[in-house]
Amino acid sequence: MTQLVVFWIFGGVAIGSAFLCITRRSPVVSALWLVSTLFALAGIYVLLEAQFIAAVQVLVYAGAIMVLFLFVIMLLNLGRRGPSDMIGWVGRLVVLAIGGVLVVELWVLRQVMPAAELRLPAGSITRFVEEQGAVGAISEPLFRGFLIPFEITSLLLLAAIVGAVVLAKRQL
Amino acid sequence: MLLGPSLGVSAILFSLGVAGVLFRRNAIVVFMCIELMLNAVNLSFVALAQQLGREGQVIVFFVMAVAAAEAAVGLAIMIGIYRHKSSVNVKEFNLLRG
Predict the structure, then answer these.
(1) Per residue in A56-71, pLDDT tens?
(2) CA–CA separation, B68 vs A164, rounded Å?
(3) Among A84, A95, B49, B67, which residue is least crowded by beta carbons within 10 Å?
(4) What angle separates helix A124-144 from helix B55-85, to the nearest 10 degrees?
């Protein structure tokens, strides 16, 4: 019960901040509301027994990626007040309709629960965390089942670094 | 127990991300909305991992790595476009138009 109350506090903060993120005019303000959403999501991850993912969420998303966003916004000097970048009233109604339809679709999809045979016995993630620790519980499948994808991720990051330097540099 | 509510929050966040992409013309805010959508998907992965096995949490890891790479390259493109157009309004991005 307490868990559900805490969940809805975090969930409400996440949804409210996400709404403010897409409706505020200044990109800096939008970015700061997005940081608030990401923090609230980290809280939800802890409730869902993914403590390590929550820590990585704060470090990588709320830390590194949002700093990169704010850095670019300030580098391009977009923080100052300019003309609104939002679409007109007809467009807003269309967006509202599309968003509403999408929410309804996903809400209906949510009713389909995974089959009982596929489910783990209740509390098995808690047991993994107790036996192997929060990091061990995720690193075991990561380095056993997903070793090659993990190595390919390092290539992806290398390609991204080289690509970012090539694209952002005036001349090589 | 939290699976249903988590998938609900995930659905709402994803829809807000889609709405934001359609609603804004500032390319950097559009990028932030894409991050919002990726986070909504991450949330449903973590929620389902609780029931279907911890591999779901591993996938979240990979999504985060891809998101970081995408943000780095995307923002570099943004800087390049700003240099040409002095604007990040998506209406003025017409370099690929024939």
Answers:
(1) 999 998 889 999 999 9
(2) 12
(3) A84
(4) 60
**Touching B: A residues 126-145, CB under 8 Å:** 128, 137-138, 141-142, 145
Q: Which residues pair with B67 in a beta bridge?
A: none
User: Alpha-carbon distance B47 to A14, whole Å?
Assistant: 15
Closest partner CB to A41 (pick from B12, B18, B43): B43
Assess contact for A3 and A40: CB atoms under 8 A.
Answer: no
Q: Which is nearest to A168 in space by CA: A71, A87, A93?
A: A71
In a 10 Å sphere around its CB, with 0-12 CB exposed, 13-18 middle and 19+ buried, how is residue A58 labelled? middle
Sequence-ordered list of residues with C-beta below 8 angstroms from that of A32, at least 6 positions apart, any chain: none
Minimum Cα–Cα distance from B48: chain A residue:
A114
Q: Report the C-alpha gap between A17 and A42 in whole angstroms.
A: 14
What are the structure tokens assigned to B44, written together?
């449903």
Query: CA–CA separation, A128 vs B50, rounded Å?
Result: 11
Backbone region of residue B38 per phi and psi (left: phi > 0; alpha: psi in -120 to 50; beta: other values): alpha
Name the closest residue on chain B to residue A147, using Cα atoms: B58
